[in-house]
Amino acid sequence: MDELGSFPFAAGQFISTVAEDHNGKQQTRAYSLASAASGNRFDLCVNRVEGGFFSNHLADLTDLPPGGLIRIHGPHGHFTVREPVSDSIFVATGTGIAPMRGFTQRLFPEDGPDAGLDRSGGKDIWLVYGTRHESELYYREHFESLAARRPNFHYLATLSRAPESWTGLRGYVQDHVARIVEERAARMGQALPLPPIDPASPPAELKFDIHAYICGLNNMVASVRERLAGFGWHRKQIVFERYD
Predict the structure, then answer these.
(1) CB-CB contact of 24 with 13 (8 Å)
(2) What distance in Å separates the CA atoms of residue 187 and residue 184, rounded to the nearest whole number?
(3) 128, part of any domain
(4) Does residue 217 share a domain with residue 133?
(5) Which residues, in sequence order, are CB contacts of 123 under 8 Å at separation 6+?
(6) How many Cβ atoms from other residues are within 10 Å of residue 15's Cβ?
(7) pLDDT (tens digit per residue) in 200-214
(8) What tens digit of pLDDT does each residue of 106-164 get?
(9) CATH number of 114's domain
(10) Which one of 14, 22, 56, 99 is most buried, counting C-beta atoms within 10 A?
(11) 22: domain range?
């Protein structure tokens, strides 16, 4: 953002990009910010879609060479980590990993005056990331390095079409999320499902010791929400952003 000294936003928000297609029609696409706020810079995670105008426009050097300009507006959205930070399960598939990278950069900054800080306050943070193939595990080195340095950050990558050589987790994210919830409840001596919360309780007074943040395609988001609801989780414990 060359014209701005800084571009403040909350990790997890998105921007809308604007450009004219080859027919002169204005196209707008929303992209989650794949970084925490840092001066006047930000990152996007763009998955090239065959025949799609905007992903190819952003990825093709002929359309947008280094130093090229793109119009945006934002930031927008409320998919942000709730304060105070609780134990949290980040759940993502595909490019839904973008806001999760922003979350981790915000909670565990690696650069600047706050480098080395743990803004989670020592809370357990799980990232459950599902893709079909190992080659689609975006930002893998970042998350693995963070998990190696931070004992309270847990990176769980799972493949739905894993080859025999894959030694990591297999299957769908909702199953691994369920296991995290069950094992945590056992450690804390909690019985599942949790007792229901009085519907008369004012929303401002609701306090939770764990939240889930989910980003991905609608079917995945719905499946994870359903599993968590089955454990007695309240809807305000489940924060999500979905796209199709």
Answers:
(1) no
(2) 5
(3) yes
(4) yes
(5) 85, 86, 87, 88, 152
(6) 21
(7) 999 889 999 999 999
(8) 999 998 899 999 999 999 999 999 999 999 999 999 999 999 999 999 999 999 999 99
(9) 3.40.50.80
(10) 99
(11) 14-76
